[in-house]
Design goal:
single chain; about 500 residues; alpha+beta; Pdz3 Domain; 2-enoyl-CoA Hydratase, Chain A, domain 1; six-stranded mixed β-sheet; 18 strands; disordered N terminus
């Protein structure tokens, strides 16, 4: 069974929150004194003000100061480390920058689920701010995939999306909603605790509103229910595929831009190079005149991989950013130095260059870090028409890759707009809070997409193709694109 929830587990592990501390769940029950909680909040805010490229890019300083004071005044009694982590993450996420974050204490949720804990039984599809039934594990016969969820327990769904999104660092509601499609049951549990049942108000096209009670479900309930769910098409984020779809149309799904086959050598691109070279040699041997590059549900990775693919098509030198601006700070310099200490040989590489800039740039000032250009591949290259498929779950370097094709004019971008940004605050580093040991991620850089556009935004397709709320047994988006190519 090609189940969306299960098939995207690999993508979720990269794009959603991971454990903040390598501690058992019981460690999160330890109590933190109110004065310590206040000290940790102070250290967090000061650290973000010092290290973040632009803490107030999306949230005015006055609003951030007010949030800081309100949380600080609320620390009047001892608080568990788990609750403190949640409060500090929400404070960090208040700035609406995806790469400023404290990771969710996943061990607490995993322990709860391992013990048979129940959660909301429906995984959502969120389109234009409206929530629909994606995968339903409730066993309720009167619910259909695609039904819109208008309310849970009498509270409007928009309020639930806003409450759960507080736990996610995200530049826009679109990014938050793309992540909630994987994690809404977890964050609803954070808000409500365990519930045996939920009262839903639903709306079905042509039939109007109706109400249904659904039970909370355990992991075993989900496993049992998944056995009887209908077969639906789902993308595998880890798959690499190269084939001819027709006599003239080639299809390339490059998969992650890292060595997913050998996690111990995550950034070894030799196997990927062989895959890409073999793929293009196959396409040229079959005289393909059109190529579809599928970056949907791609978790991203490093441009040392994607550049190998782009170089088969490029007709001039290219790079993933028009500018790579970095704010000098003690926190960024310390994080970079830790990498150098762990791998002294890296002094000859990028980390060594960073160290030189941090040494010569006054704290708080910004320097431009030169990004090397990649040359087109020598010899024969693919010169046909290129279409690049993207969707809301194209992340990280997959977004940069789509931006390169669009900005250099090497391909038509098709599908739906990415939630992740092409111009973004990124290149995340981290510092550690002194008492709790919580790691705080922050963006040290402002990465400007190849076109030079400085506004933070995703990649908007040239050829919009709406992803169905409910997938059929086949790849409807790819079929639509093939039809449009045939018409052209």
């Amino acid at each position: 069974m090609k189940n969306l929830l299960l098939s995207l587990a690999g993508l979720l592990s990269l794009s959603a929150a991971m454990p903040a501390l390598a501690e058992p769940a019981s460690a999160w029950d330890s109590l933190v004194a109110p004065e310590t909680a206040r000290d940790e909040l102070d250290a967090l805010y000061k650290g973000l003000q010092s290290a973040h490229f632009d803490l107030y890019a999306h949230q005015p300083e006055e609003a951030y100061d007010a949030r800081y004071q309100a949380i600080r005044e609320g620390f009047e009694e001892p608080i568990s480390l788990y609750e403190l982590a949640l409060q500090l993450q929400k404070f960090t996420a208040f700035g609406h920058v995806a790469h400023a974050r404290i990771d969710f204490p996943q061990a607490v949720y995993d322990s709860y689920r391992d013990a048979g804990g129940k959660t909301f039984p429906i995984y959502l599809r969120i389109v234009d701010g409206r929530a629909y039934v994606g995968e339903d594990y409730s066993g309720a016969s009167d619910i259909q995939p695609g039904d819109e969820i208008r309310a849970i327990d009498g509270i409007d769904m928009a309020q639930w999306l806003a409450r759960t999104a507080q736990h996610l660092s995200a530049d826009t509601p679109y990014i938050a909603h793309s992540l909630l499609e994987f994690s809404f049951p977890k964050y609803l549990w954070v808000e409500l605790g365990e519930r045996d049942a939920f009262q839903l108000t639903l709306h079905r096209e042509g039939e109007g509103r109706f109400q249904v009670e659904v039970p909370g479900v355990t992991r075993s309930d989900i496993e049992i229910a998944s056995q009887t769910m209908p077969e639906r098409f789902a993308l595998n984020p880890n798959a690499r595929d190269a084939k001819m779809l027709t006599d003239s149309v080639a299809y390339l799904r490059p998969g992650p831009f890292y060595n997913v086959e050998d996690p111990e050598n995550l950034w070894d691109a030799s196997g990927f190079r062989t895959f890409i070279d073999d793929a293009f040699e196959q396409f040229l041997a079959n005289e393909a005149d059109t190529l579809i590059i599928d970056l949907r549900d791609n978790p991203g990775g490093d441009n040392s991989f994607s550049d190998l693919m782009i170089a088969w098509i490029a007709d001039e030198p290219f790079r993933f950013a028009a500018d790579f601006l970095i704010r000098s700070s003690d926190e960024a310099a310390a994080s970079n130095q830790a990498r150098l200490d762990a791998n002294p040989d890296s002094v000859a590489g990028v980390s060594g260059r960073f160290a030189e800039f941090y040494a010569e740039t006054p704290r708080g000032e910004v320097f431009s870090f030169d990004i090397d250009y990649t040359s087109p591949r020598e010899g024969v290259r693919f010169s046909g028409d290129v279409y690049v498929l993207i969707n809301r779950h194209s992340y990280s370097n997959a977004v940069n890759t789509a931006a390169i094709f669009q900005d250099y004019g090497w391909g038509v971008i098709a599908g739906e707009k990415t939630a992740d940004m092409a111009t973004t605050y990124g290149a995340m580093e981290s510092f550690t809070l002194p008492e709790t040991g919580l790691d705080v991620g922050f963006p040290k850089a402002h990465i400007i997409r190849p076109s030079g556009e400085r506004k933070s935004d995703g990649v908007t397709p040239d050829l919009p193709i709406r992803t169905p709320i409910i997938a059929s047994e086949k790849d409807d988006v790819l079929e639509t694109l093939l039809g449009l190519i045939a018409e052209r």
